[in-house]
Design a protein that fits this description.
Elements: E1 5-7, E2 13-15, E3 19-20, H1 26-39, E4 43-45, H2 53-62, E5 71-76, H3 83-97, E6 102-107, H4 117-129, E7 133-139, H5 143-153, E8 159-163, H6 171-180, E9 183-187, H7 199-208, H8 212-222, E10 226-227, H9 234-241, H10 250-257
Parallel strand pairs: 3-4, 4-5, 5-6, 6-7, 7-8, 8-9, 9-10
Antiparallel strand pairs: 1-2
Helix pairs in contact: 1-2, 1-9, 3-4, 4-5, 7-8
Bound molecules: nicotinamide-adenine-dinucleotide.
Length: about 280
């Protein structure tokens, strides 16, 4: 089943559900990408840092779908921050993907101590003006980082891709996004399985006959987030796509809300600086 589309603040639209390519080995990336597109996914979340953009591009070319029906994301890695370096990195990503534009280009991490993310944002604005990125956004930005780039440029990112799962629900940042027309996109949406056996998840799974993973992904959909689970298995890709023929009740959503512990699987964006 094809994902619903979310309206972005620049007038474009983005599939709410996609799939992610982090840690997908280069040699299988083309096959995973092509399989996912065949099954019905229309958004592919990649990044220069995943070192599999060539496979991402090859998988796209394997598909018979028109380019304008596929939403391609990539990201500028930390060591490529700064105005000129970002322009060069985007061109290198496009060359590896074999595309003349991506649908969404993100700054992967703010790396606040280097203080290059505002210049990097200026470069993304330039790339959008040049048609190399149709939409531009950020990832792992906190409210302060968002306020700074919006204040300096007046350009609001369309998306902030952040870690969200039932143990890390980020309600304050999501409220900031909602107030500024920024779509929240959830990474590590399954939270390394750490809520698969939580009673509210198991209860909803028992009522609906769905798996814990499907319950958690459906929770993301119902909080209004976009979501990009990863699976390299066809059965897993299929399972994670089947989220739109059932729904969680208000009581089930409220029960899952109680699982928030503000605890991360991944690094803290306030200090993560890996180059
Ligand atoms: P995920 O939450 O998608 O989980 C992936 C793991 O869950 C894999 O081990 C997979 O085999 C397993 N899994 C998948 N479907 C399952 C199912 N139905 N039942 C049981 N297990 C299942 O984690 P992720 O890959 O960390 O995050 C998803 C995507 O988010 C990444 O591929 C990447 O595109 C993106 N991401 C972005 C950032 C960022 O900094 N912007 C960081 C991490 C991930």
């Amino acid at each position: 089943m094809i994902s619903p589309l979310l309206a972005l603040n620049d007038g474009h639209r983005m599939p709410q559900l996609g799939f992610g390519l982090w840690q997908v080995p280069g040699p299988v990336t083309a096959d995973v990408t092509a399989t996912a597109l065949r099954l019905g996914y229309r958004l592919i979340d990649g990044a220069a840092a995943y070192r599999n953009e060539e496979g991402q591009g090859a998988g796209l070319r394997d598909s018979t779908l028109p380019r304008d029906q596929i939403f391609v994301t990539t990201k500028i890695w930390n060591s490529d921050q700064g105005f000129d370096a970002t322009l060069r990195a985007a061109e290198a990503s496009l060359a590896r993907l074999g595309l003349d534009h991506v649908d969404l280009l993100l700054i992967h991490w703010p790396c606040p101590s280097r203080d290059l993310y505002p210049d990097t944002w200026h470069a993304l604005i330039r790339l959008r003006e040049e048609g190399r990125a149709r939409s531009i956004g950020v990832s792992n930005f906190n409210e302060g980082h968002l306020q700074r780039i919006i204040g300096e440029t007046g350009v609001v990112p369309v998306v902030n891709q952040i870690e969200i799962n039932p143990r890390l629900q980020q309600p304050a940042l999501r409220a900031f996004h909602a107030a500024h027309g920024i779509v929240t996109q959830s990474w590590t949406p399954l939270g390394q399985g750490r809520s698969f056996d939580a009673p509210p998840v198991l209860a909803a799974a028992a009522r609906t006959g769905r798996s814990p993973a499907q319950i958690i992904l459906r929770w993301h959909i119902q909080i209004g987030a976009a979501v990009i689970p990863r699976s390299t298995r066809e059965a897993g890709l299929r399972e994670n796509l089947n989220l739109f023929d059932f729904s969680l009740t208000d009581a089930e959503m409220a029960a899952i809300a109680t699982l928030d512990e503000a605890s991360r699987c991944g690094p803290d964006p306030a200090v993560f600086e890996m180059q």
